[in-house]
Design goal:
The protein has five helices and no strands. The protein is mainly alpha-helical. It has one domain.
């Protein structure tokens, strides 16, 4: 559901730019992590994040899954599984995985990567919510019963 107005095209380009930065920051966090020296608590968070991400993908089904914030044609609004608590569980999963990786092997440049990733995901989340509100009239009601990113909080 792409908006063909000039503002719509700008938002679409921004969305794809955010996807690019998302993967750049994740890649930088992973390649600067001492993967053979991870602390046990970091491994637990990584497993929790990967588990949540897989649960979210299984719930939304691959046909509805999209790495960009755009709504797929014939997409469906999903409000069960992890989506009943948070509207963006895949973003939550990324943060649950990446923040401990940085904090478990801290450096200021790695902190910059994870802060950049967090900002990118929040901006992307807001764009995605605008698209979802346009695509699904029931989305506004759904936002009243779920949180954006952190269950029971925000």
């Amino acid at each position: 559901m792409f908006n063909t107005t000039r503002m719509g095209r700008r938002k679409s380009y921004l969305a794809w730019l955010l996807v690019m930065f998302q993967f750049l920051f994740i890649g930088l966090i992973v390649i600067t992590s001492p993967l053979t020296q991870l602390k046990p608590w970091v491994i637990l968070f990584i497993l929790a994040g990967v588990g949540l991400g897989l649960y979210a993908i299984q719930t939304i089904r691959l046909g509805n899954f999209n790495i960009s914030p755009h709504v797929k044609p014939n997409g469906k609004l999903i409000a069960h599984g992890p989506y009943r608590l948070v509207r963006h569980p895949m973003y939550t999963a990324i943060l649950i995985t990446c923040w401990p990786m940085v904090l478990g092997h801290f450096s200021y440049y790695r902190l910059g990567f994870v802060l950049g990733l967090t900002i990118v995901l929040i901006v992307k989340l807001h764009i995605e919510e605008q698209y979802l509100k346009q695509a699904f009239p029931a989305y506004l009601d759904y936002t009243k019963t779920s949180k954006k990113l952190i269950p029971f909080f925000w």
